[in-house]
Design goal:
14 helices; alpha+beta; seven-stranded antiparallel β-sheet; 498 residues
Length: 498
């Protein structure tokens, strides 16, 4: 799910939650057979953690904020929400949750779309208090709390003229990206976000806190970079940073009449441009009955060499905003708030080559499913085309859970469907699976060996099998999971489970 799932890992609760502020209309949950276990867990956590960590109940603004998720398909009303402030309190909460067997959810930014992946009817853990962003100029790394979004990280690093490999859209939490992979405008240069992890602060399921690096615990360092919340709760991550000047680029919007010309420009870019500083992300979209293509052009320098994007710039367009600008302003072109509140699902298909026949296929899929699904309350369908270099997986210094193979990198199609009616959930899931299957078969017919390429977990629909995402890494991940979590405490949380 586009940078979709922020399944970050962390807990902590507070005694102050039982001291209800006079100004808030907070009510303790009623105790019945359906919520007694969760209620017991909420109350125990509130009693045992430090005053800096807080439990909230229905009626408070904090509870509402903690339970909010970008996609309505992942919204649930929890028994309580818990905002941990220390790793010790996270450990206390994990111990109590394990003892009571209460379900829980872990929220970093809340951008996961699959139902129950970061939400819960039990204890909603929100990592808001882990909001530190600390830059180390000596090591050129930044340590980031799992409660922040990438916009905040990019902005904090601007004063040092540095940046990180993170999400390419606004308001995406750090957690799901670094723990799930993370494709970026900088990926051709520096790899995935998870490839740039130096260390992780992890609260294990037994409540102990450990710093995970390639030397202190190679197994967990491998598993956490792509393996999400299976191994405990990650509260902070340390990432490599890179020098960042002004960049060149922006957004061009084309009407459906220009799709053929735009497709040719995309195909020529994919066939001829090998400069890792250049990146183009194209969205074939069907929004409220209107078909368009949006192209985000990016070059990692204040000026762009002649010839790289000339075709895109010469095509007649509806609107354009291209200039020398800050890196954060490029991120803001993909504003996730535009589709906030929709029910949502993602899918992902790899491509070896981005050719005209492939792009014509993508255009046809967009138009067919856009028209087909409009009567089922579809509001937005997007087929995003990211043109990547085959060397994009060459930047990791050690193996990661995702991708299971680094023999070559792939361009990809990132599909997104957004709708309003919950009665259409199965219709949308079946449709996006059918579209992905059709494109995979068509690409195979075109001679592209992509049928068994691992699907990106952050853009995978809820019925995706683990082996399709983790391949030959799955047995090792299951072994590591059983070693660090023999009582399956993390199995009480949602998400991809080993």
């Amino acid at each position: 799910m586009v940078a979709f799932a922020e399944l970050a890992l962390s807990f902590v609760f507070g005694l102050t939650a039982l001291i209800i502020p006079v100004a808030s209309s907070v009510s303790l949950p009623e105790r019945d057979a359906g919520n007694v276990v969760q209620g017991t867990a909420c109350e125990q956590i509130a009693m045992e953690v430090s005053p800096s960590s807080v439990v909230y109940y229905t009626g408070s603004d904090e509870y509402t904020k903690d339970n909010y998720h970008w996609a309505a398909s992942n919204n649930q009303n929890s028994q309580c929400s818990f905002e941990p402030a220390t790793t010790k309190d996270v450990g206390i909460a994990l111990r109590i949750l394990g003892q009571t067997q209460a379900p829980f959810g872990i929220k970093s930014g809340g951008h996961a779309v699959n139902a129950g992946f970061s939400s819960t009817p039990g204890v909603q853990i929100a990592l808001n208090a882990f909001s530190d962003i600390v830059y180390n100029s000596a090591t050129q790394t930044v340590t980031v709390g799992m409660g922040v979004v990438w916009d905040e990280v990019y902005t904090a690093l601007e004063q040092y003229n540095m940046t990180v490999v993170g999400a390419k859209a606004t308001n995406i939490g750090v957690g799901g990206v670094v723990l799930g992979g993370g494709y970026s405008y900088l990926t051709n240069q520096y790899g995935l976000s998870s490839d740039n992890v130096v260390a992780l602060e992890l609260v294990l399921p037994n409540g102990t806190v450990t710093d995970v690096t390639s030397s202190t615990n190679p197994d967990l360092f491998f598993a956490l970079r792509g393996g999400f919340n299976n191994f405990g709760i990650v509260t902070r991550v340390t990432l490599n940073t890179y020098p960042q000047s002004k960049v060149w680029g922006g957004l061009i919007t084309y009407s459906q009449d220009q799709w053929e010309e735009v497709s040719l420009a995309i195909a020529n870019f994919g066939a001829n441009v090998t400069d890792p500083k250049a990146f183009v992300y194209n969205s074939f979209s069907y929004i409220s009955g209107v078909a368009q293509v949006l192209s985000i052009l990016f070059y990692d320098a204040p000026t762009c060499p002649d010839g790289i994007f000339d075709e895109f710039l010469s095509i007649h367009h509806l609107d354009t905003d291209i200039s020398t600008r800050s890196y954060i302003s490029i991120i803001q072109f993909l504003d996730s708030d535009i589709t906030a509140g929709l029910r949502s699902v993602f899918h992902w298909v790899a491509m070896e080559n981005v050719t005209m026949p492939v792009l014509n296929m993508i255009a046809k899929e967009t138009l067919f499913w856009g028209s087909e699904l409009t009567p089922s309350s579809a509001q937005t369908l997007v087929y995003g085309v990211a043109v990547c270099l085959p060397t994009l997986y060459d930047h990791a210094t050690s193996p990661t859970a995702y991708p299971p193979s680094r023999s070559r990198g792939y361009s990809f199609i990132e599909m997104y469907y957004g709708w309003t009616d919950s009665n259409s959930d199965n219709t949308m899931l079946n449709a996006i699976n059918a579209s992905a299957q059709n494109m995979t078969q068509t690409l195979t017919n075109y001679g592209q060996d992509i049928a068994n390429v691992a699907v990106y977990p952050n853009s995978a629909p809820p019925d995706m099998s683990l082996d399709r995402m983790y391949g030959n890494n799955l047995p090792r991940l299951q072994t590591i999971k059983n070693a660090v979590d023999p009582d399956n405490v993390m199995g009480l949380a949602g998400g991809w489970k080993f």
